[in-house]
Amino acid sequence: MTSVGPAIEIQGVYTAYEGAERPTLTDVSLTIGRGEYVVIGGPNGAGKTTLLETINGMLPITHGNALVCGHNVRGNGVQVRCRVGYLLQNFSFDPLTPFTVEEVVMMGRFGKMGLFRKPGKEDHDAVKKALALLEIEDLADRPIGHLSGGQQQKVLLAQNLARDPEILLLDEPFSNLDMFAREAINRLLTRLVIDGITVIIVSHAFDDLPDRPVRVLVMQEGKIALDRECSPGEVEQVIRNAGNGTRNA
Amino acid sequence: MLEFLIPNNIVCHAVEAMLFASVACAVLGVIITQIQISSIGFTMAHAAFAGAAVGMFLSLNSTICAIIAGVCVAFLIGPLSDKARVSADTALGLLFGISMAVAIFFIAYMQTLGKGFSAMGLLFGDVISLYREEIYLLAIICVVAVVFVVVLYKEITGIIFNKKIAESVGIRVKPVYYAMLFVIALTVALCIPIIGGLLLYVWLVTPAAIALQFCYRLSAMFVVAPLVAAAISVSGALAGLEYSLPVAPLTAVLLSLVFIIAVVISPKRRITFRKS
Lengths: 249, 276
Ligand SMILES: Nc1ncnc2c1ncn2[C@@H]1O[C@H](COP(=O)(O)OP(=O)(O)O)[C@@H](O)[C@H]1O
Ligand SMILES: [Mg+2]
Description:
The complex is a heterodimer of chains A (249) and B (276). Chain A has 8 helices and 10 strands. By secondary structure, chain A is α/β, with parallel strands linked by helices. In chain A, the strands form 2 sheets. In chain A, strands 6-7-8-3-9-10 form a 6-stranded mixed β-sheet, with helices on both faces. Chain A has a 4-stranded antiparallel β-sheet with strand order 2-1-4-5. Chain B has a single domain (9-263), classed as ABC transporter involved in vitamin B12 uptake, BtuC (Orthogonal Bundle). The model of chain B has no long low-confidence stretch (mean pLDDT 87). Bound molecules: adenosine-5'-diphosphate (ADP) and magnesium ion (MG).
């Protein structure tokens, strides 16, 4: 069941890491509609990951308001995360990790299923579908630690798709993927956007963007320095220019 | 409870105690070793041990004092450990040191007062002078540990897989994590009189480590670890009483021996591929 209104509505949000002296995000406001494809660029340490984790309620918002999928993120983090997929940056699992690919993908639905419930038919079907979307059905019974970095990344993406998210947050998802996998995932993301899912992707690879207008956000020092729509071919230049702009200023 | 199998009352109680304690510790041990919070388990065990020693010295109920100390430590180190700060390691080291100092101080002091015999029980365990109520308590905590894992299995596996990913899929990581520490603290406190504060760690870690040598799946580990622990502990109790050897230390040695054998024959360390 999808809620009405924009996917994300953030107003004057400050996010601080515990123990930090200054907030990492300062006064960020942002509205993202359903089915938008958003690319977030900006230098290392600009606050891209922090913005994603603010959106799904994993980091505490100290000031301001954030509404995601119709839920106030403050106080409803769990409800938000049941509707929002989040592929974390740079993950890898050691060979002894005692989980198979199928188990890892099923885990994506654990929050949604709620306490005390065991996976049912609906959950198993969703897992099958997610494995099929990423074309990794043949890996289902393999221990996740025995896969390559790129394969592990696909498994984690499948985990996020398994809970039918309304929003998908991807933090540098292409870092471990080969050319073919990147193309395949981009086709997949394009399809998701057409189906009305909001895709927000932090990336430095711009050669495989979907063939449709893309919204570009550039982050700098915890603020959104630039926010505009452009064609996929222009994205790299736009992000470059934004970087130069502030450096010269 | 097992009188129909073992007519001798002392032997029967010892076997029951070892059975319940080993199953509870092994089940929780799988969680402890997989989340890699052995140092927390270790510190909790020693805090409970110190609590028991203080309780015994003050002629209070030492089990209740052990529970209080274990639970206090669980809630002291919980916030530190779930932030994964470097200082958690130091804090655990400090707590561990304090616990040992307190425990040894009171045990040594009790020895000068002539209460040494029961104090030694806290160190190395004592399966002979148990009350029936203590065995019922152990049976209860054993059931609690198993039910806890069965009921919160999804959430526990998520946390074992990766705490951050578990949080990102919408699992309520914090309450489950604290409940887990609480159950561990209770179990540890109740097992100290049987297994002893110094040896408890063997039961928390070794059965899970043995299971890991053979299991590729977590679900299998949760079955294999308590079975192995129960089999070895019951054998240890029977053998120890038969040949008048100290039961808990003997069983700890047996567990460690089985671990070494498991490592040697583990299929995980073998390369099975053959070029045909
Ligand atoms: N766990 C943390 N504690 C304190 N500060 C952090 C933490 N993680 C990141 N930061 C700080 O927040 C800022 C933004 O980080 P991040 O959002 O990860 O940047 P990026 O744009 O590279 O993803 C950085 O300056 C970093 O130092
Ligand atoms: Mg980042």
